[in-house]
Amino acid sequence: TQLLEQSPQFLSIQEGENLTVYCNSSSVFSSLQWYRQEPGEGPVLLVTVVTGGEVKKLKRLTFQFGDARKDSSLHITAAQPGDTGLYLCAGARPTYKYIFGTGTRLKVLA
Amino acid sequence: IAGITQAPTSQILAAGRRMTLRCTQDMRHNAMYWYRQDLGLGLRLIHYSNTAGTTGKGEVPDGYSVSRANTDDFPLTLASAVPSQTSVYFCASSERRSRLDLAKNIQYFGAGTRLSVL
Q: Which of residues 36-95 of B touch A (CB under 8 A)?
């Protein structure tokens, strides 16, 4: 059973455009992490959000944790080709095992 | 600085054969994890270890076993491989599984092992 659904699954946009990736669940998570993965490599952590409603910014990336801690979004402003990759959300369950989302594959065209 | 090293990088294996995927970390992390990554399903936890000498089952443990004889090594064994185990396998480690200090829950991943079972 997949507890974390990400949308869209694939996204291809032009350089300079904005985009939002969603991570949704019916379960509550104690914290949620966002990772980026490039081909042939393992995921690399971008951010951890903990508090319901929390917003964190990492340069052009804005991460938000839903008020009920069941969902999250990642917004990228003025996307660049270097943002290309697979974006994964991961929610921490009470036993502190992480459940990963299905992933969003982003391609930014120059 | 190596971080997490996985071996082999890729492997083609006949069904029914036994295979051990190796994972070594040099960060002295307490917790280690094995995931498999399949298209459309994301990363799924196979087994984990909170500290040397202990292991636990994740979401998809059937057909896999692990051991944690020391802090650095966390091998994953497929006793009798089947085609459904074709996947990319990632090993990860974190400093500590801590509810109070999320900074210690950062997972560092290896580069993965691409396994094909025919």
A: 40-45, 48, 58-59, 90, 92
